[in-house]
Amino acid sequence: MQPASKTSSKWTSTLRHIKRDRQLLILLIPCIVFFVLFRYGPIYGLIIAFKDYKVFTGILASEWVGFEKFIKFFSSPDFWLLFRNTFLLGLYTLLWSFPFPIIFAVLLNEVRLIWFKKWVQTLSYLPAFLSVVIVSSMIIDFLSPGRGLMNQFIAWLGFEKIYFLSMPEWFRTIYISSDIWSSMGYEAIIFLAAIAGISPTLYEAAKVDGCKRWHMMRYITIPSLMPTILILFIIKSGAMFRIGYEKVLLLYNSLTYEVADVFSTYVYRKGLLEYDYSYASAVGLFESLIALVMLLITNLMSRRLGGRSLW
């Protein structure tokens, strides 16, 4: 048991730090309120995944059914289709979308023409300010079999037009390509900031030793970025199963369900269109648990192999 004087000194130190940082703590209040209301508050509603929820009966008065909704989902023919589609779409997005911002940031750092560098940065940031609806509309117009720019170019070359959005084999390519285009510039900001924090003396010493730019990039820039890369890779891996329904919902159709239907779009259909709230909550909870497991596994692997982790 700690002496009273030691406990008192700790409280005094804590109060002194609170008083010193009071302005920053006040600025933090809206963030805390947001997370309490919109992140932790809705957790209470997850109990409907274990109930036969009726809107007019209410959450507490609805009948408990245990794991009935989960068993129904696991035994349905949709389960493995959704699991495969979500896993593959998340995996391909991670493998292709994650390296591009790193490569872009490293290459952009090597540009010595300031005006050209700023111009490229500005153009690369612009897609991040467009909503998912606008990006999806641009994709649909660009790939339209009627007056779409891509099909006009294909017809000009003498080939037959391709109905991209109606062909299952093209859906993942379109989804991942659009994700790279819309997020590459914005995500590169993190890596550019990490590069700016590298000590210039390392590059100066390398120049004295006769290293060329390729060697400096390989042996100084990229190794210095590894802590940032590992942390972001952990976060991205944890979100691999958390594919947002918005863009998939806007781009897919009945002809591409077999490759495009994922957990989030299934939850949307079952919950908001078919009003089966308990079943949709069970599917959403399972998706969240899978994402949590992926995050824990990736974090453990990163700590064991690279010595870096989120905790």
From TrEMBL:
One Pfam assignment: BPD_transp_1
Record keywords, A-Z: Cell membrane, Membrane, Transmembrane, Transmembrane helix, Transport
PROSITE patterns assigned to the protein according to its UniProt record, in alphabetical order: ABC_TM1 (PS50928)
Family: Belongs to the binding-protein-dependent transport system permease family.
Alphabetical list of Gene3D superfamilies matching this protein: MetI-like
Entry's localization field: Cell membrane
Source organism, top-level taxon: Bacteria
Residue ranges occupied by any ABC transmembrane type-1 domain in the UniProt entry: 83-298
InterPro entries tied to this protein: MetI-like, MetI-like_sf, UgpAE/MalFG_permease
Membrane topology: Multi-pass membrane protein
This protein's name: ABC transporter permease
CDD domains named in the record: TM_PBP2 (cd06261)
Keyword Isomerase set for record: no
SUPFAM superfamilies in the record: MetI-like
Transmembrane parts of this sequence: 24-50, 87-108, 120-140, 180-203, 224-245, 277-301
Organism of derivation: Paenibacillus chungangensis
